[in-house]
Design brief:
This protein has 147 residues and is mainly β. It has a single domain, classed as Beta Barrel (Lipocalin).
Length: 147
Amino acid sequence: MTNEEFNRIWSSRRFFLVTATSKDSKVFRGRGTVKTSGREGGTVVFEEEGEWISLDKSICKFRNVYLWSFRECLRFRLAHLRYGPVRPVHLVDFAAISRDTWRCVSPYLCGDDSYAAQMNYSNNKLTLSWRISGPTKRMLVDYSYYK
């Protein structure tokens, strides 16, 4: 993947679906929109707004802002912009394991919890899968981003 391909694919995302499966096999679903903006140096910002739909059909709104940065040698980085663009929180670095699949080099650690991630690009769909584990957490979260 080149810097241009990265920018084209990531910048073209407009909406997402998300599924979270908890350790007790409960499934939560969500959906939302993505506003993307390019920045210098092979970066794309995702501004996500969406809603989780709980098992009882109640809705919980959420918002996230992520910074995706292309690196050399088929690598890229993901950061959260919860403190704004001047103080990104580094989450994970991805390395290619095939032409269209990337795995995090090491998981993101948050307290006792570990967040491991994998990305895939297939059939014009960009998929981000998180595997979250810890003393009280065991969860799978799958985001699918579309044009």
